[in-house]
Design a protein that fits this description.
It is built from nine helices and 16 strands. With about 350 residues, the chain is α/β, with parallel strands linked by helices. It has two domains: about 270 residues, Aminopeptidase; about 70 residues, OB fold (Dihydrolipoamide Acetyltransferase, E2P). It has an eleven-stranded mixed beta sheet with strand order 3-5-4-6-9-7-8-10-16-15-12, with helices on both faces. β4, α3 and β5 form a beta-alpha-beta unit. α3 crosses α9.
């Protein structure tokens, strides 16, 4: 990341490049806890929106977009018409400083208020969970390692199930359709829970070491799932590849569109995606061994045909797809006992 200095509310925020970060000594925990939120309140009542970025420290598009929005609000280039807007440019400061996905662990797993913070991400959750609960909606900005276009992840249909009860599906989907992307994915937590059940089965059969896996379905809860659990709506936008600077513009336009959808910013209501490509996750496969390998270097949204070989296990087992599908979130660097790739089928939701 190139060196970049932004003046925000009289505070100079420096984003050091990778070489500078590598030379910095590791800081003790008490110096890591510099969480920062920028809040804008209109005198007129309205929705409360929070926008987060850099939940993973190497995903920076949203951070730059937020700082651009902040500067425009300060300079009155943009004016908040109503409600409250909270902006978190760097959600995980330790991961950001290290320029890697996580500090001590993945913040977007097991995200909940900790009884007693243990690792760094627990401290982040201790600060962030109450902040999210103060808002009506969350736009969480990310980027991805491999793929060819931005996409949004949205939540379940309205339901009263124990796993992910929800009552704002129509609003969430209407906003997702207007963020500026054309690809949409749903079914995250249901599919993750299915994966946890498969892990538990392997664990019970003695096929997986106890200390290498987590089998709690709630381990799949991240910022958006938590936001829904406290009564809000939430959308994750994957803005582009990590190193593609065009992702900053995708993130910026998504914030603008979201604010206009909520009536918080002047301008016409954004048009919905004219031809949304929608797909639902339905299965997840763990990596069992570090020598498990993909049949080819998959990218997210690569199409696979029924019976096609996706991967080979270290013990010789062939992993095939039982139906036509898409490979989602393939991770050739996955650790043994962790999710390796997902499968999605086309069609389904976003009929608002």
């Amino acid at each position: 990341m190139e060196s970049d200095i932004h003046q925000i509310s009289g505070i100079v925020a420096t984003l050091p490049n990778a070489r500078q970060r590598a030379l910095e000594p590791l800081l003790p925990l008490e110096q890591e806890l510099a969480f920062h939120v920028l809040r804008f309140d209109s005198p007129r009542p309205g929705p409360a929106l929070i926008v987060t970025a850099a939940v993973h420290g190497n995903e920076t598009h949203g951070s730059f977009a937020i700082q651009r929005i902040v500067q425009q609000l300060i300079n009155s280039e943009l004016q908040l018409l109503c409600g409250r807007l909270s902006l978190v440019p760097v959600t995980n400061p330790k991961a950001w400083r290290l320029q890697q996905r996580q500090g001590d662990r993945n913040l977007n797993r097991r995200f909940r208020p900790p009884t007693q913070p243990i690792d760094y991400e627990d401290h982040v959750a201790h600060w962030l969970c109450p902040l999210l609960a103060e808002h009506d909606g969350l736009l969480d900005l990310h980027s991805f390692q491999s793929g060819d276009q931005a996409f949004a992840l949205f939540g379940p249909e309205n339901n009263q199930n124990e796993l992910e009860a929800f009552a704002k599906a129509e609003q969430e989907e209407a906003i997702a359709l207007r963020l500026g992307c054309d690809r949409f994915v749903y079914g995250w937590l249901d599919t993750y829970a299915k994966g946890m059940a498969k892990r538990a089965s392997r664990l019970k059969a003695g096929l997986t070491p106890m200390d290498s896996v987590d089998i709690d379905p709630a381990y799949g809860v991240g910022t958006t799932e938590y936001m829904r659990s406290v009564g809000g709506w939430a959308i994750t936008l994957e803005c582009g590849q990590h190193d593609d600077p065009a992702g900053r513009e995708v993130a910026y336009q998504a914030i603008i569109n979201c604010l206009r959808c909520l009536g918080m910013l002047a301008g016409p209501m954004p048009e919905p995606s004219p031809k949304p490509e929608v797909m639902g996750l339905f299965d997840v496969f763990d990596r069992y061994d570090s020598n498990d390998t993909f049949a080819r270097p998959w990218k997210s949204f690569d199409r696979v045909n029924q019976g096609e070989i996706i991967a080979r296990r270290a013990d010789g087992e062939i992993v095939r797809t039982a139906e036509d599908a898409y490979v989602i979130f393939p991770n050739p660097k996955a650790q043994a006992g962790q999710e390796w790739f997902y499968l999605a089928r086309p069609g389904g939701r976003l009929g608002v």
